[in-house]
Amino acid sequence: MTSVTDIADRAWRGEPTPDYHAFRTAGLSQELADGLLYVSGFSNLIALATTEGLVLVDTSGTLTAEAAHRALRDWTDAPVHTVVYTHGHLDHVAGAPRYDDEALEQGLPAPRVVAHEAVVDRFERYALTAGHNGVINGRQFGMDDLRWPTEYRRPDETYRHRLDLDVGGRRLELHHARGETDDHTWLYLPDQRALCCGDLFIWASPNAGNPQKVQRFPDEWARALRTMATYEAEVLLPGHGMPVVGVERVHEALTSTAAYLESLCEQTLHRMNAGRRLDEIVHEVAPPAELARRPWLQPTYDEPEFVVRNLWRLWGGWWDGNPAHLKPAPEADLAVELSDLAGGPAALAVRARALLEAGELRLAAHLAELAVQAAPSEPELHAVRAEVFEAAAGAATSTMAKGVYRHAARESRTRLGS
């Protein structure tokens, strides 16, 4: 069987890894340092053996928690003493009740769960917005019947800035950083010279834009990466994807990702300070070409232009600078007016198809959407809309864009009965 470190080496070099997919391969495991186990999943589980029991860093998510648990128990039957959440995303915390149940079955105390204090606020928000989260995550991942939970395994202990733990003679340094989330924790394990970074590094361009989720913090994210790089760790254990092994590679992974984010921040801020509109900034800012070529910075999950939009929201609010967008007319009303000027909704659809054939996907998407909004009951218009957004999904690189485009195409295919 191919080892985790072999797959990680190929991924670092940009070579194919057909035996591994960052978001699909569950239960692949390897002990990477003394008493330190990596287990792959949609999100990863990291286990540290101590004389008092195991420390788990994250518990994997709903779909892969059982595979992660089996891999862990193939390694050791030691009880779980402490669970650390790197953040409160469902794919990192949903496996935690499995270890509470296991302890109960064995007549042992439930594991202690430790997290940043903002995780509690996240869980409360998730309960309030369960319907909304079901919709947006279903759209993002192509799961139209997704039901979002309202109950979570809450932390027993929280901290604000930094927390040092000693479990069975093993030292863990917990640090708070705002990045993909406001509740993020990264850990340094000095005995193993290992960093557990959660989603601050995921083998893809940083998930700092995500169009359907709450605020991200790219500037603080970059600073956290720079801080981690000063530790000269030998192993970097991310929340998603393979470990990074070797001091030089760990340093490069962290600093190149920081530089990628810093460039997007600097370019965006420069244009905002010059009074430019969001539309102009989004279409001008791009990561440095040399960084964009790195295998671990490909826009396979999020995209740089989404990061720019999130920076605008962080520093500039929701208005994009277009005065017509301050108090806009209903989109359907605007669509009717424009379709009348164009000669009717069918004319918009004809033009959308011509733009699609010419490879002008962004313009085609605008016109196809306007056509359907102007005449939502017309099957011919939905046929064009489905074609356009299926093509857009095929051309997109990121999970975010593919999810939105495929959802739009499915909407129209459903209206067509196909």
Percent strand: 15-25%
- Whole-number radius of gyration? 23 Å
Shape: globular
Number of DSSP E strands: 13
CATH class of the largest domain: Alpha Beta
CATH architecture descriptor text of the largest domain:
4-Layer Sandwich
Q: Strand-and-helix sequence, N→C?
A: HEEEEHEHHEHHEEEEEHEEHHHHHHHHH
The total count of helices amounts to: 16
Largest sheet: 7 strands, mixed
Which segments are poorly predicted (pLDDT under 50) over 5 or more consecutive residues?
none
What structural class do you assign from the helix and strand content? Answer: alpha/beta
User: Main sheet: which strands, in order across?
Assistant: 1-2-3-4-5-6-7
Helix content: 40-55%
Number of domains: 3
Global mean pLDDT: 96
Gap between N and C termini: 43 Å
List keywords for this structure.
Metallo-beta-lactamase, Chain A; 13 strands; alpha/beta; 418 residues; seven-stranded mixed beta sheet; Serine Threonine Protein Phosphatase 5, Tetratricopeptide repeat; 46% helix; 3 domains
